[in-house]
Design a protein that fits this description.
CATH class: Mainly Alpha
Order of helices and strands: HHHHHHHHHHHHHHHHHHHHHH
CATH architecture: Up-down Bundle
Largest sheet: none
Shape: globular
CATH superfamily: MFS general substrate transporter like domains
Number of helices: 22
Number of strands: 0
CATH topology: Growth Hormone, Chain: A
Oligomer: single chain
Amino acid sequence: METSYLKRSNRLLNQRNRHQLLATVIINLICLAHGIGIGWLSPTLRKLQSPDTPLQFPISVKEISWIGSALGLGSMTGNILSGLFLHRIGGRLCLLFMALPHSCLWLLVYFAKSVDYLIVGRFLAGITGGGIYIIHPLFLSEISDANIRGTLASMVMLSVNIGILIGYILGTYLAYHLIPLIVFICPLCYFILVFIFIRDSPMHLIHKCNFAAAEQSFRYYRNIKEEEESLSMMAIGEFNNIKDTLTNDDNKPHKVVLKDFFTPAAIKGYGMAAVIVIANQFSGLFTMLNYMSDIFAMSGSSMDPNTSTIIIGSVQILGAYVSTILCDVFGRKILMLVSSGGVALSLTAFGFFTHFAGIYDLTDWGWVPVAIMSMDIFLGNIGLISCLFVLMVEMFPLKIRARATSIAIVVCSSLVFLMLNIFPLCMAKWGLPATLWSCAGITAICFLCFLFFLKETKGKSMLDD
């Protein structure tokens, strides 16, 4: 394993892949900013519900559920907009647009006069998040080599997770009105760097019949200069192979027709995508991040809820980082199996502790909820979270890949809205243990589906079905 990791690390940093890595780092700045917006909410909600609220208006439990779930509605909107415009205007312009709604989030947070400001702000943040989860994986799959594609694509969630931890820390220790002024720098830097360094992908330019620009883009992302004759001839051969695959004999792009969405390969892709999306959302991993402080307050833990949340944020980064290391070493399937099985067991254990904490005095065991939730978040991030967008791109046939991925992410975002809306209501009505056991049961069923039906896609060419 160590040898495989060192070889993969060298591939990331070698001359051919440097521009791909640079592009990944730049476009993930908005993922970092999006993560800050997610993580900031958890400690901030507790402040807004306290007598020392920094705002001049009260917030009810119902309004909290809408502040949380507005992100899901915005995400669906961002998915749909991205799916509509990605092929029309290209990845570069879509990436630039992602900075606008996220910037508006922090303006609305700073000038909030009512709870509606926060709801609209979270909705706009969701538009950016929804766009990220479609544009980034597709764009990276089109500019990256197959042997590092999984690593680069999984960096999307690593960046989001780093942002979530930063958001937890900022929301816990800084004044409410200071945070927007600091975080606003992130989307601004992102916009400038994307404008300067990012080019449209070769595949998009081929679809637009702009073959000269497509070849230049291919050379740019492979970091091949014209004076490097041997590499240049190799690049021309690779580029022509891509162009021939994406076009007809008359050099016109292949047209997508309705029957392309109903091939056996497409139908199999829909089925597995449905299982992956259900596991991703009904495991509660993303939902719990938004309400983490409240969950720890209800769990029977004696540790400070905000401190526990920061610990979880750190563990989450570790899980996402491990995924970037292992995704192109062991493959996607084993990570999904370990992740889903571990999450199901962790949620079950967390539910039992919370249940017995309401009956017995478990003060001396107050560290247990943090330990179990750390395991849950770590295992969730090595597969269910980080591999989601890698698999979404790789499992669909070439001709419908972008559209089918967009549809799958729209469904995922609708479940984000549903879970963010009902999770606090379920905790209030059923109690935390029953809510967690329900999530564990669904995740266990998804584990069995992965075991018997998920196919490995490591090293798959993006030109193959």
